[in-house]
């Protein structure tokens, strides 16, 4: 069993209080489907809940015929529904039905778009279906550990610049693919990324994602305050730059072991914060990504990532120019 608050695994089935975070494990599992629940005409069998967010519950499960492990995301927007404790069926109040249906349609649409993506750094969608008055997305179960766990395992809670470049490069590739497909993730953080044993990054958990077609619509969004861009927190228009902001926060954390101040705190303090102790191109990349105003950031994540190459090109050109000057001024040195 897993604590859905701190994600501590292998808890005994009789656990009432999580020994790690002190949360009441039983109450957290009240709205979760029980172990052994079968879905899609007995195709999948649930094993245990892995996580719970504002819009869904994630389960570890297995395919009953193929016996392979999968992850199943259940659409469960806690703001609009509850679960009958006995039957485990959804209870949708009449006043919430229209909103629920709209969000369910978007959930299905996002699943369909993700299913068409075949990218090495994006979790693969295997199935999508409606059942029990809701919908389910079936994804591959990625073996590895989260980027958050990898950071926690480091003595100084940070990674080497070479490794950071490799990881962020993969994240940029993943985001470029999903942005081109018309999806914005909007909840990028180390715990939503898995590193496989060979250091391949896989982007997971699209529970807070939105379609590009909904980007201009003002709405209350699910977010993680210490990573989120200001427009996500205020419910404003979002875009690729919103994901870029969160990449900038992660980049600073990977390099230094610490997060920059939250976006809203910086906004209230007239944005005087600057990264310290970082060399080029890291400081320049972070400054660009973490601009408070969305339209002041690079327009795409890959354009932003290319800035580091431009910095290198400029440095090489300066060095070549200085060499020419030295050759003319001090020919006896060459």
Automatic annotation (TrEMBL):
InterPro entries: Kinase-like_dom_sf, Prot_kinase_dom, Ser/Thr_kinase_AS. GO terms for cellular component: cytoplasm. GO terms for molecular function: ATP binding; protein serine/threonine kinase activity. Keywords: ATP-binding, Kinase, Nucleotide-binding, Transferase. Residues 44-313 form the Protein kinase domain. One of its GO terms (biological process) is intracellular signal transduction. This is Protein kinase. Transmembrane segments: none annotated. Pfam families: Pkinase. PROSITE patterns: PROTEIN_KINASE_DOM, PROTEIN_KINASE_ST. PANTHER family: MAP/MICROTUBULE AFFINITY-REGULATING KINASE, MATERNAL EMBRYONIC LEUCINE ZIPPER KINASE. SMART domains: S_TKc (SM00220).
């Amino acid at each position: 069993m897993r604590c859905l608050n701190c994600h501590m695994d292998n808890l005994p089935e009789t656990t009432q209080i999580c020994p790690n975070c002190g949360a009441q494990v039983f109450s957290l599992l009240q709205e979760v489907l029980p172990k052994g629940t079968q879905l899609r005409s007995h195709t999948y069998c649930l094993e245990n809940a892995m996580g719970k967010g504002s819009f869904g519950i994630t389960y570890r499960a297995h395919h009953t015929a193929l016996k392979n492990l999968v992850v199943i995301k259940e659409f469960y927007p806690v703001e609009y529904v509850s679960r009958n404790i006995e039957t485990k069926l959804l209870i949708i109040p009449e006043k919430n039905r229209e909103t629920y249906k709209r969000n369910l349609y978007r959930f299905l649409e996002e699943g369909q778009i993700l299913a068409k993506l075949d990218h090495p750094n994006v979790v693969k969608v295997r199935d999508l279906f409606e059942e029990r008055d809701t919908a389910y997305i079936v994804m591959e179960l990625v073996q590895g550990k989260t980027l958050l766990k990898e950071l926690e395992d480091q003595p100084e809670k940070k990674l080497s610049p070479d490794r950071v470049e490799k990881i962020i490069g993969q994240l940029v590739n993943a985001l470029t693919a999903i942005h081109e497909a018309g999806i914005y993730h909007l909840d990028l953080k180390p715990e939503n990324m898995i590193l496989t044993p060979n250091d391949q990054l896989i982007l997971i958990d699209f529970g807070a994602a939105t379609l590009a077609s909904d980007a201009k619509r003002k709405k209350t969004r699910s977010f993680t305050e210490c990573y989120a861009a200001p427009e996500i927190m205020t419910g404003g228009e979002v875009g690729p730059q919103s994901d870029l902001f969160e990449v900038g926060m992660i980049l600073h954390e990977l390099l230094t072991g610490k997060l920059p101040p939250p976006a809203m705190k910086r906004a209230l303090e007239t944005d005087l914060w600057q990264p310290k102790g970082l060399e080029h191109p890291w400081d320049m990349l972070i400054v660009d990504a973490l601009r408070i105003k969305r339209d002041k950031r690079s327009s795409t994540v890959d354009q932003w990532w290319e800035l580091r190459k431009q910095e290198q090109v400029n440095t090489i050109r300066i060095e070549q120019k200085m060499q020419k000057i030295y050759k003319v001024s001090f020919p006896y040195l060459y």
